[in-house]
Amino acid sequence: MAGPAICVIVPVYNVAPFLDQCLDSVRAQTWRDLEILCVNDGSTDGSRDLLAAHAAADPRLRVIDQANAGYGAAMNAGLAAARGEYVAIVESDDFLDAGTLRWLLGVARTHDADVVKANYYHHWSAPVPRDELVRVVGAAEAGRVLTDPVGQSDILYQPPSIWSALYRRGFLEAADARFLPTPGASYQDASFAFKVWANAPRTYLLREAFLHYRQDNAASSIHSLGKVTAVMAEFDEMARYLTSRPGLPARLEAARQLMRYNAYLWNYDRLDDGLRGEFLEAVARQFRDEAASGTLDLSAFDPLRATNVRAIMASPARFHAAKAAARGHRVATALSYGRLGGPRLALDLAADRLRRRSYPRYPADRAERP
Q: How many structural domains are present in the chain?
């Protein structure tokens, strides 16, 4: 018997305050031919009881229970159990607009797409509910089929945002696009997204947004150095993946290293002040090891990013002090560039500006009010 058109995977761990809104939004989709797989990752806060109530009310919803093993393991369990032609991912503190899956599936079938990727909203529920549109898909990239998403767009350098997309399940299986199961870690969507974009033969990018990505969940990674340093394992997994699939384009390794730098600096900027220096020390050790082994590749970097890498390797403490002194002040930022890279960096940056070159950022924080 053929499976449903779409499998929605919902990983669940201690999200009782938000779970009803999430599952109500999935169950209310105007596209009804769904299976809804909720993977309960050992919740202890009453989430399991809420799942049972939703499963009793909707035969499309099935609960998979496992001992707490982390986000990656929960997602892998959902992918292994999925029967749908396409796969959607909804994190259990987020929610969808009612027509989301009908729209994404229609685009996928019309354009024979392996991946359909959309923009999304940042959502806050307090003090009053509000949304801000986040553009990971630009106007120039949207509305057409991409046969080489890495070469034809900067989607690889955007936040992974794996839940604002629809994936053909057969494509995920052929690409061996699975998650790194690291218990207690965060950022386990990064290597999954890399595997998707490294392989996707037909991708359709949308300017529309449908998913509301919650920002006011107190269980944030910015207060945990262990969760943030876990992102390093994600980039190691990308390197392992490239080694295991020698047929992929060689340029993906340079892209991986630029992605990694952008992710590290983004995480550095959002960490609690007391954790930033220690995080930079870990980053510096990794960069130094790769420089010593000859595997550090800065060929995809602009002059400023290349200078920053060298400055971090030379003295993470000095880089941290320069960034702290410059934070929020344009003149101080310019002076810090001079201290880090000297006149040559200023000339390189000016030449880049004249050439109007643009280098991808992670994330391109293109958030605005709708």
A: 2
| Structure tokens given for 131 | 């949304």
> How far, in Å, CA of 105 to CA of 101, rounded?
6
Q: For residues 228 and 350, give the distance between their C-alpha atoms in angstroms, rounded to a whole number.
A: 34
Last residue of a domain, one of 217, 252, 271: 217
d(CA 271, CA 263): 12
Q: Are 167 and 114 in contact (CB under 8 A)?
A: yes
Task: Judge whether 108 lies within some domain.
Answer: yes
CATH assignment at residue 143: 3.90.550.10
For residue 123, how many other CB atoms are within 10 A of its CB? Answer: 18
Query: 211 Cβ partners below 8 Å, 6+ apart?
Result: 90, 94, 95, 96, 97, 100, 118, 120, 121, 163, 164
Prediction pTM value:
0.86
Give dist(CA 252, CA 282) in Å, integer: 24
How much is the pLDDT for 367?
35
Query: In whole angstroms, what is the distance from residue 359 CA to residue 313 CA?
Result: 22
The owner of tokens 């974009």 is: 197
Provide block-wise average pLDDT over 10 residues at a time, the chain (370 residues).
90 96 98 98 97 98 96 96 98 97 98 98 93 94 94 90 97 97 77 96 97 78 66 92 95 94 86 86 95 93 93 95 74 53 52 43 33
Going by C-alpha positions, the residue among 95, 89, 108 that lies closest to residue 21 is 95
